[in-house]
Amino acid sequence: MSMLAVIGSGLAVGGGLALANRWQWWRVPKPADWPRLLMYHSIAPEAPTGMNTPPDVFAAQLAWLQAQGYRFHTVSELLHNPGPKAVALTFDDGFANNYEHAFPILREHGAKATVYLAPEIPEIDRLTPAQIAEMQASGLIEFGAHSVHHVNLSKLDSDAARAEIAGSKAAVEALTGLPCTAFAYPFGRFSEETAALVREAGFSSAVTTKKSIIPQPSAQPYTIPRISTHGEMDMAQFRVAFSRGRYRF
What we know:
TIM Barrel; 18% strand; eight-stranded parallel sheet; 8 helices; alpha/beta
């Protein structure tokens, strides 16, 4: 075999491996009756990124889920009695555009979701108390907590981490007038100690950024994985991620 042929063969193999890694098609699809949790952040008509999903992309994903017979739950509902083909839509941080752009789409599809609020997160346009009240009154939205200032809890000492966790619970309950039992680790960072502090604060669940699908989230309620999304995902990539638990964009 000539040197050019060897190089060409190597490039073909390398390209095939790169494509397989990008699409994750080689992973075994998880059973459809295993619950899924999808992770979003910003929903806005801006450039698609790992943090922002354009509204039309989000709407297409919900329409596909509905067409496949999936039923939308809050995270708390998903843990208790999800039934078959259950999915929980989750939104981290509490962007105001979750009200402006995601909420109308959720209402159109009758889709429930859980929004994790970091009440004093800096540098984003946050949901207002009036927006939170309207979303909650719809019966579609569960509000969880995401620390007070959106900090890496694993880098804090116990007292500071406890204050961030318990403080966010109290702040969300003051905003909603309801018990807050769902938590999301900022940046997905946690340790055994922070998970214990979340449990100690009175939360019944906590989600991570670990990319996976598991058969029974209630079996590990303080380390629940999710399927991450990306604003540039096309529907083929979304279906691969949804069936297998992850993609590599």
